Amino acid sequence: MKLAGSITFLALLALAVIAGSLTGLMLVYSVDLPQIADLERYRPITSTDLLDIHGRVFGSFALERRIVVPYEAIPSVLRQAVISIEDKNFESHWGVNLFRVVGAAYHDLTSTGRTQGASTLTMQLARNLFLSSQQTFGRKLQEVFLSIQIERAFTKQQIFTLYANQIYLGQGVYGFEAGSEYYFSKHARDLTLPEAALLAALPKGPVSYSPLMNPDRAFRRRNMVINSMLEDGVITNSQANSAKAAPLGLHIEPPSNSVAPWFVEDVRRELERQFGSEQVHEEGLRVYTTLDLDLQQAANRAVLDGLSALERRHGWKGNLLNVIAGGGSLDDFRHPDWRQPVAPGSYVHALVTNVLPYQVSARIGQQQVILGPDDFAWTKQRDAEKFLKPGDLIYVRIVASADSNLVWHAVLEQDSGLQGSLMTVDNASGEVLSMVGGRDFNLSQFNRATQAERQVGSSFKPYVYAAAVDGGARPEEIIVDAPVTFSTAVGPYTPHNYDDTFEGPVSLVHAFADSRNIPAVKLAERVGIRKVIATAHQFGLSSNIPPFLPIALGSVEATLQEQVAAFSSFPNDGVRIGPHLIRKVTNSDGLTLSESPATVAESTSIKTARTMMTFFKSVMQYGGTGAAAAVLHHPLGGKTGTTTDFNDAWFIGFSPSITCGVWVGYDNRQSLGDKESGGHAALPLWIDFMKAAIADRPDEHFAGDPRPAPATNLATIRPAAHQTATPQ
């Protein structure tokens, strides 16, 4: 009896010690646990989305790319795939599979190899939300305690929804909806069986099983998910076999912010000034911008195509960077351009890998590209081996999608450093509809539309003429275009015309249309250069302009944004509305946080503005420096601008509804080339853009003008044969 009693006592004592130890462990490891009430208030980090005027998302900011969706938006095929591979007993357990957890914990603590799984979906959720990734017994216990609490506080549907919106899937993507849109460019609700299985395969190892970095391993892991679903009886043999035979089928979504990167960057700066970086990048704001995505895409094409045409006019320059000569290797080189998707029409840098006399092989990332003799014929080089070699970094335009051998077809272009910018505003609202700040955002984030101050050339003359009209000048007034010398504080000043000729007595409207220099200087001298400068400032130019007579010809620096805003005053009856990028900002619940009104100022009187419209419209008519735009058969006005030595080329013009400005030049201010005036270098880009901009506005007319006859269908208009000797 005594022996039996001793055994019983020792057993009870052991149980008490074990119970006490477990209680102690629970107290120790539960002290720092977060409260489940925190999870009830939990709001995951979500993307701030930028929407265009038609409600289309074109950009976003986020620390974690995530799109939160409800349980109903997660298709059953995806739920079944996740449960089959990650947690078969999800619907029946109480948050923990005790035997698997103990075994996995022991394995992790005693093995130097790969850590073992066995965490339920609830445990994964607890770890991802609240705990570190440190592999310790204590952390595992905390995970267990939290999982039990989560199961007691939430339904299975709520837990799965939290998991589905939180889990990491690689490439900065969190949650299955964002994963579906990134990897397959579709909503999760539209996933097929093999697509759902691939997403379900990623939580185990977003990098190890990445379909981008490790496609073979991703393929095998996806098929493992499909086999698990078959074992669980949620799909048939036929469905499994068909799904396992399917390719990965990736359709990667274009990188966010790639369509209008300079616009997006300016929006980001404005939002961070107003709300702070944390709120912008974490709280899922909805930013309703002024951008028109269709016009932005037209602007992108116009700038890239126009700069390409200008480059070709001046022949092949070579001067290519060579990766091998720089100590690099063909296999390891990566170009910033390669982060963007490639499609027909894309301009992108490519690395030459092999050269034959009549064929050039190159790569863009891992994508192979081929160029034939016709693709570099414009260079006047017949043998590719004489001007290209492996390692050369060339600039190409993709002209055809990959063939059956997955090889793209491209034509050779040239990137000599030439830059361009384009900006469009709505005349009546000041809303910025499109913005291109340069040729390649990946290589230069400097915004030449809003940050570059360049000499404006003859595009300054409208302020001279507006000051004169304020003083009583009329379009039909005669002025003499003849040699003249002015006495100034710094000595005699003798202006010259662009073509070094003189036309004698001409009307003011003719002098403006033909951009004659001498009449402009005479007008500035008549009204006073200080009056001209005051007028320019009244139109919004902000630079400090010295009171010297040559200023009348545009030796003034301004940004394209300032010029576009100023010119938009003329078709708007003298009212200048400040350019702005954002209409409204709301939080993730739709509550309006900001809705700033535009700034409005009177640049000039209605009378002066309407008189000036006569001058602007004459530029676009026969004989004017913008006459090539007559091909558009639309009410238009504008002004060219060219600086000394052809360093800068401008065209700023408008329809009744929008104003668009184009600048072309080099950042180092080198010459564009002989005779590359505003009408020759910038106007063609403007025309190409305006074809798209006015296509759906056939019946508009300027204020004060009679309504026009029905416009010609733009679809029948052939590309303009641009003038080759256009003055300023």
Q: How would you describe the overall organization of this protein?
A:
Helix content is about 35%, strand content about 15%. With about 725 residues, it is of the alpha+beta class. The longest helix is centred in the N-terminal third of the chain and has 29 residues.
- Beta-strand portion reads 15-25%
Radius of gyration: 34 Å
- Coarse morphology: elongated
Enumerate the spans where pLDDT stays under 50 for 5 or more consecutive residues.
22-31, 112-116, 710-727
Mean pLDDT: 88
Q: How would you sum up the major sheet?
A: 5 strands, mixed
Number of E-type strands: 25
Assembly annotation? single chain
By DSSP (H or I, 4+ residues per run), the number of helices equals 21
As a percent range, the share of helical residues equals 25-40%
Distance between the termini: 118 Å
Classify the secondary structure makeup into a structural class. alpha+beta
Strand order of the largest sheet: 2-1-5-20-21
Strand and helix layout:
Layout: H1 2-30, H2 36-40, E1 48-51, E2 57-61, E3 65-66, H3 76-86, H4 98-110, H5 121-130, H6 137-153, H7 156-166, E4 173-174, H8 176-184, H9 193-201, H10 215-231, H11 237-245, H12 261-275, H13 277-282, E5 286-289, H14 293-313, E6 347-356, E7 359-364, E8 367-371, E9 393-400, E10 407-413, E11 418-426, E12 432-436, E13 454-455, H15 461-470, E14 478-481, E15 486-488, E16 491-493, E17 504-507, H16 508-513, H17 517-527, H18 529-538, E18 557-558, H19 560-567, E19 575-577, E20 582-586, E21 592-594, E22 600-602, H20 606-619, E23 637-642, E24 648-654, E25 658-666, H21 678-693
Parallel strand pairs: 1-5, 3-4, 8-10
Antiparallel strand pairs: 1-2, 5-20, 6-7, 6-9, 7-8, 9-10, 11-12, 11-25, 13-18, 14-17, 15-16, 19-22, 20-21, 23-24, 24-25
